[in-house]
C-alpha cells in the first residue's frame, strides 16, 4: 500500500537501520570504562555530533530522551520552575499543551493560549501584547505544525520574548530533518525533536538546552545522573545511534529532498483539487513544510474516506490523538466547522515517497471521496 503518514511516523532510513544493527550486535554500557563501554560511548558521542551538525549547535547542548513528548515535558518543567506565565498556542501538540496546562493548573491565569488565524498562524501583535501585560517566564511555540505543516516565524517571537527576559522553547518535532535548522540564528533556548519523524527509530528523541540559560535542574527521571544529570537511566545506545545516522543522512540531502517532496505534495494537491470540486487545502497560503497536505473534502467524513481507501495509509487529524472522538483541535482553532474538520485528511510525504505512489494515491482518494460523498447524499436524501 502507499504510505502517506510520515508525520505519524516515517520509515527508517537505510543508513539508520544499518547503524542500529551494528550497535545492536555490540555489547557495552556507555557509562562503563572498559573497552566495550568506551565503544558504546563513542557511538553515542558520534550521534550527538551528527545531531549537533544538523542543528548547528554544540554537542554538549544535547540531551537524549525517549522522544519529543519527554523532551517537551522536561523543557517546560525545567523552564517554568520559577512560576510566572506560560505563553503557548492553540495549535500545539498535546505534548506541549497538556504539559503547560498541568504546570499552571494551580495558579489561575498563568497560562495564555494564543489563538491562530484561518491559515493556522499566530497573531504576532496579540503575542507581543501578552508579553507586555504579564510576567511571562516561558514561551513555547512549535516550529511546524503536525497537522497542517504551517511553519512559525520564530525570530520576531524570540526577540520579543528575550526582551522581557522570558525563555523560548520550540517543539521542532515535525521540522527537524525536513528543512534546515540553524540554532545560532534561531536563538531559541530549548528545542525538542524526535527521531522517528525523520527516518530514525521510535522511542528516542532529544532536547537542545542552550548553554548558560537559567533552568531549574530537576530531572523527570531521577537515578544515576546520566545526560549531565538531566535524564537518568542507561542510554538507549542503538536508538541514539539510529537517531544520529538518520540526522546525518537527512543533513546530506536536506534541500534536494525538500524540493523533491514539495513537488510531489503539489502534484497530490493539484490533482485532488482538480478532480474533486469543493475540496480545499488548509493553510496553502502559509509557509508550510514540504511534505504535508491537509485537505478537506466537505460532506465526506475522514474516517469513511480512509475506510474506503485501504491501499493508502493517511490520517484523519493527527494520529497522535487517534481514538479521540472530537474533531482536530488544530483545525477547529483555525476556524473550520466541526463538519469540515471531520472531513479532513492529512497526507504526509517524506524521504521515500515516489511520484508513482502519489499517482496511485490520487486514483484511490478520488474514488473513495466520490463514493463516500454519494453515500452521504443518498442517506441525507
Ligand atoms: N510534537 C509534535 C509536533 C509531534 O508531531 C509529535 C508526534 O507525535 C510529538 C510532539 C510527540 O513525539 P514523540 O512520539 O517522539 O513523543
From TrEMBL:
It comes from the Bacteria. GO terms for molecular function: cysteine desulfurase activity; iron-sulfur cluster binding; metal ion binding. It catalyses: (sulfur carrier)-H + L-cysteine = (sulfur carrier)-SH + L-alanine. Transmembrane segments: none annotated. InterPro entries: Aminotrans_V_dom (IPR000192), Aminotrans_V_PyrdxlP_BS (IPR020578), Cysteine_dSase (IPR016454), PyrdxlP-dep_Trfase (IPR015424), PyrdxlP-dep_Trfase_major (IPR015421), PyrdxlP-dep_Trfase_small (IPR015422). Keywords: Iron, Iron-sulfur, Metal-binding, Pyridoxal phosphate, Transferase. The keyword Iron applies. It is an enzyme of class 2 (transferase). Gene3D superfamilies: 1.10.260.50, Aspartate Aminotransferase, domain 1 (3.90.1150.10), Type I PLP-dependent aspartate aminotransferase-like (Major domain) (3.40.640.10). Its cofactor is pyridoxal 5'-phosphate. Its EC number is 2.8.1.7. Residues 2-360 form the Aminotransferase class V domain. It holds the Pfam family Aminotran_5. Belongs to the class-V pyridoxal-phosphate-dependent aminotransferase family. NifS/IscS subfamily. This is cysteine desulfurase. It comes from Streptomyces corynorhini. The lineage of its organism: Bacteria, Bacillati, Actinomycetota, Actinomycetes, Kitasatosporales.
Amino acid at each position: 500500500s502507499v504510505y502517506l503518514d510520515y508525520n505519524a511516523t516515517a520509515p527508517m532510513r537505510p543508513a539508520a537501520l544499518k547503524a542500529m544493527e551494528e550497535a545492536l550486535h555490540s555489547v557495552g554500557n556507555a557509562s562503563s570504562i572498559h573497552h566495550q563501554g568506551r565503544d558504546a560511548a563513542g557511538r553515542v558521542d558520534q550521534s550527538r555530533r551528527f545531531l549537533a551538525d544538523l542543528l548547528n549547535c554544540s554537542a554538549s547542548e544535547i540531551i537524549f530522551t525517549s522522544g519529543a513528548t519527554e523532551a517537551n515535558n522536561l523543557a517546560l518543567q525545567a523552564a517554568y520552575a520559577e512560576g510566572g506565565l506560560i505563553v503557548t498556542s492553540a495549535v500545539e501538540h498535546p505534548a506541549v499543551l497538556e504539559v503547560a496546562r498541568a504546570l499552571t493548573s494551580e495558579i489561575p491565569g498563568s497560562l495564555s493560549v494564543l489563538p491562530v488565524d484561518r491559515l493556522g498562524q499566530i497573531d504576532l501583535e496579540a503575542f507581543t501584547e501578552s508579553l507586555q501585560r504579564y510576567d511571562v517566564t516561558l514561551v513555547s511555540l512549535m516550529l511546524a505544525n503536525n497537522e497542517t505543516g504551517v511553519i512559525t516565524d520564530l525570530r520576531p517571537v524570540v526577540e520579543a520574548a528575550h526582551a522581557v527576559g522570558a525563555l523560548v522553547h520550540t517543539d521542532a518535532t515535525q521540522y527537524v530533518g525536513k528543512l534546515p535548522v540553524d540554532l545560532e540564528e534561531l536563538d531559541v533556548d530549548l528545542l525538542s525533536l524526535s527521531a522517528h519523524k525523520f527516518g530514525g527509530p521510535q522511542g528516542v528523541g532529544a532536547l537542545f538546552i542552550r548553554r548558560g540559560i537559567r533552568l531549574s535542574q530537576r530531572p523527570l527521571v531521577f537515578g544515576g545522573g546520566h545526560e549531565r544529570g538531566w535524564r537518568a537511566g542507561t542510554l538507549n545506545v542503538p536508538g541514539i545511534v539510529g537517531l544520529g545516522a538518520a540526522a546525518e543522512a537527512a543533513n546530506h540531502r536536506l534541500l534536494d529532498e525538500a524540493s523533491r517532496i514539495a513537488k510531489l505534495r503539489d502534484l497530490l494537491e493539484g490533482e485532488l483539487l482538480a478532480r474533486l470540486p469543493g475540496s480545499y487545502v488548509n493553510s496553502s497560503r502559509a509557509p508550510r513544510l514540504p511534505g504535508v497536505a491537509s485537505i478537506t473534502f466537505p460532506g465526506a467524513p475522514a474516517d469513511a474516506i480512509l475506510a474506503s481507501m485501504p491501499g493508502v495509509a493517511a490520517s484523519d487529524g493527527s494520529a497522535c490523538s487517534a481514538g479521540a472522538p472530537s474533531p482536530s483541535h488544530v483545525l477547529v482553532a483555525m476556524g473550520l466547522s466541526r463538519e469540515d474538520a471531520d472531513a479532513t485528511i492529512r497526507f504526509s510525504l517524506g524521504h521515500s515517497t515516489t511520484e508513482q505512489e502519489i499517482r496511485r494515491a490520487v486514483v484511490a482518494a478520488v474514488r473513495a471521496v466520490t463514493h463516500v460523498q454519494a453515500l452521504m447524499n443518498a442517506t441525507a436524501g
